TrEMBL record, chain A:
Pfam families: BPD_transp_2 (PF02653). It comes from the Bacteria. It is found in: Cell membrane. Its main location: membrane. It comes from Rhodophyticola porphyridii. This is Branched-chain amino acid ABC transporter permease. The chain crosses the membrane at residues 27-44, 50-69, 76-92, 104-123, 130-148, 183-200, 234-258, 270-302, 314-335.
TrEMBL record, chain B:
SMART domains: AAA (SM00382). One of its GO terms (molecular function) is ATP hydrolysis activity. InterPro entries: AAA+_ATPase, ABC_AA/LPS_Transport, ABC_transporter-like_ATP-bd, BCA_ABC_TP_C, P-loop_NTPase. Residues 22-270 form the ABC transporter domain. SUPFAM superfamilies: P-loop containing nucleoside triphosphate hydrolases. One of its GO terms (cellular component) is plasma membrane. It comes from the Bacteria. The keyword Magnesium does not apply. The keyword Cell division does not apply. This is ABC transporter ATP-binding protein. Keywords: ATP-binding, Nucleotide-binding, Transport. The lineage of its organism: Bacteria, Pseudomonadati, Pseudomonadota, Alphaproteobacteria, Rhodobacterales.
Length: 358, 273
């Protein structure tokens, strides 16, 4: 009954254009924000941070990034893992070369570096589309992982070939390294997620976003009304890679701490993020969050149910988990190809008219 | 054909037509061995409704594609506003003030009607990337300002009630209208319409004809259109180019064209030898 547009008249175009046009949605958004900033940091513990919240936040950034490229601009990419690795290795090199640099600057610079690399690998998109572009980005994935394995300069000639994040502090508190408190890491990632999601929303609702979507829906018509395809596609690659790079950097510095590139940033990571946006919903910022939550939570949930609830052997449960997640992805694609975001939108549409069916 | 002064002429219903805005000079377009357009010249004058007609495969759409920069003719020149136009990409042509619609609707199906129309305002928006990212200053002002223009076109074409509907859900006739809106909102100086009435019923055709005349009348937009419905073409247009097999076989007012023996042959079918 309270979920209504009726009586909530928009008197300016700016108001009509806001992100949450329905009052209830706005309050819900402020509530989530309040919970995330005001409550969660005080009750967070290591298990929640490491199993759920940190991966959710970090993958949400990557999912928003890939969603900008694939969901909004229609350019399929399988190079996400490789681009995350670029972010991670840039941040590692910066952290070790400039110990005085603060983590925000390092993370942003990692994003910019990844954006440059992303634009380079995005150049083929001007000529090829669809599956062929996917294969080209797949080449980026394998090339980048190979590069970081092969050239010792990237991992500072360490014997193991791994990279380890040294301890860095912000406002006197450790953000990275083994001594970092989970609430600090959480807030650090949350700040990035909040700002980046807000920027993504701004970009996608304005002129640039419409150019991306025009290219996605019909590139010929887009060109005829004045979209420069080169500029639109390359900005999408740049912005997307920027997000993915930041996500890769955070995954390494804040979450994992030590990384072996083939393991952490392999092709499976590319697919994981791609599944997130497909399940969450292509072309939707909310979808990126929903997909990230789904893919992070589902394995944890299954593990808890199977081992704790049903008393299965851990190894068996782990393998069974893959089967169930895979099956759910397939079911999901068949039943709702537009993802959780569409389900959410449908529910809201129904709710608007509730209790009347039409 | 009445004598054309360089400054223009006055139509029968008293509309003033200006000088030449666009001129095609000896255009020849080949695809491999196929000659789609053979040595065609004609001009489009400021403020007129210019029709291109001809049987199927005559090269009409190819001609429109030459004008909008999709095809680059092997021979001949395109003159626009008194200067020869170099080979341009379609988006550069759009920035010169030439908008068009397509024979098969080319809307952005995943976007709402409003977003489709706002995309048409692209060339009037110049907020920087940073402004847009932060939704700050110019980006916000521009969005509101252009929304106002978009709303005017929405009012004009009477599609207020569907402005937030995704285009994919609309019926055919409305899609055509939204496509016209998207082209119109760019405030083009020349509007190219590729079969704006194809596949419409009589009522929709009447609506569309009225919109075309109103656009020409109210905004003074120059219109070049391709259409198969002879009744519509003869009623709407000031001058008509007739093409057949890539060649120009007639050019003039509807009356002149109607009485041109070559045109009658082409339409009624005389063996080509």
């Amino acid at each position: 009954m309270f979920y209504r547009e009726a009586g909530d008249f928009k008197t300016t175009y700016a108001k009509d254009n806001q992100t949450f046009p329905i009052a209830f949605d706005r309050y819900r958004y402020y509530f989530v924000l309040f919970m995330a900033i005001g409550i969660v940091p005080f009750v967070i513990n290591d298990y929640w941070a490491n199993a759920i919240l940190l991966p959710f936040l970090i993958y949400a950034i990557a999912a928003i990034g890939l969603n900008i490229l694939t969901g909004y601009c229609g350019q399929v990419s399988l190079g996400t893992g490789g681009f995350m690795a670029v972010g991670a290795y840039t941040s590692y090199k910066l952290m070790t070369a400039f110990p005085g640099l603060d983590m925000v600057t390092i993370t942003l610079l990692s994003g910019f570096m990844t954006a440059i690399v992303g634009v380079m690998f995005g150049l083929p998109s001007l000529r090829i589309k669809g599956f062929y572009l996917a294969v080209a980005t797949l080449a980026a994935q394998f090339f980048l992982v190979w590069l970081f394995n092969k050239v010792p300069w990237f991992y500072n000639y360490s014997a193991s070939g791994q990279i380890n994040a040294p301890e860095r502090t912000m406002f006197g508190m450790a953000v990275t390294g083994p001594n970092a408190e989970s609430w600090v890491k959480y807030l650090f990632c949350l700040a990035f997620v909040f700002v980046l999601a807000w920027i993504a929303r701004n970009l996608t609702r304005g002129s640039i976003g419409r150019q991306w979507m025009a290219i996605r829906d019909m590139d010929i018509a887009a060109e005829i009304i004045g979209v420069n395809p080169l500029k639109a596609k390359l900005t999408a690659f740049a912005v997307s890679s920027f997000y993915v790079g930041i996500s890769g950097a955070l995954l390494f510095t804040v979450y994992l701490g030590a990384v072996e590139v083939g393991e952490a940033y392999g092709i499976t990571k590319s697919f994981l993020v791609l599944f997130m946006i497909i399940i969450g919903g292509l072309g939707s910022i909310f979808g990126a969050f929903a997909g990230a939550a789904f893919m992070v939570l589902l394995p944890v949930l299954l593990r808890n149910i199977l081992t704790d609830g049903m008393g299965w052997d851990t190894a068996l449960a782990t393998h069974f988990e893959f089967v169930i997640v895979g099956a759910m992805i397939m079911i999901f694609l068949i039943v709702e190809p537009h993802g959780l975001a569409r389900l959410w939108a449908l529910a809201k549409e129904k709710l608007r008219l509730w209790p009347f069916p039409h | 054909m009445n004598e054309m002064s360089p400054d223009g002429y006055t139509t029968e219903d008293g509309r003033k037509i200006g000088g030449v805005v666009m001129e095609m000079r000896n255009i020849t377009l080949r695809f491999g061995g196929v000659v789609a357009i053979k040595d065609i010249s004609f001009d489009i004058r400021e403020g007129e409704i210019r029709a291109i007609i001809g049987p199927n495969g005559a090269g009409k759409s190819s001609m429109l594609n030459v004008i909008s920069g999709f095809y680059h003719p092997q021979e001949g020149e395109v003159w626009y506003r008194g200067a020869r136009r170099p080979a341009m990409k379609p988006f550069q042509v759009a920035r010169q003030g030439i908008a068009r619609t397509f024979q098969n609707i080319a809307l952005f199906d995943g976007m709402t009607v409003l977003d489709n129309i706002m995309t048409g305002r692209l060339n009037h928006m110049s907020a920087s990337f940073i402004d847009q990212a932060l939704w700050w200053g110019k980006a916000q002002r521009e969005e509101v300002k252009n929304r106002r223009v978009a709303e005017e076109v929405i009012d004009f074409l009477e599609i207020q009630n569907i402005r937030k509907t995704p285009v994919g859900r609309l019926p055919y006739g409305l899609k055509k209208r939204v496509e016209l809106a998207r082209a119109l909102v760019a405030e083009p100086s020349i509007l190219l319409l590729d079969e704006p009435m194809a596949g419409m019923n009589v009522e929709e055709k009447e609506d569309m004809s009225r919109f075309i005349l109103d656009v020409n009348d109210e905004f003074g937009t120059t219109i070049a259109l391709i259409e198969h419905d002879m009744g519509v073409v003869m009623d709407l247009s000031d001058r008509v180019v007739v093409m057949d097999y890539g060649k120009k076989i007639g050019d003039g007012t509807p009356d002149e064209v109607r009485n041109n023996p070559d045109v009658i042959d082409a339409y009624l079918g005389v063996a080509h030898d």
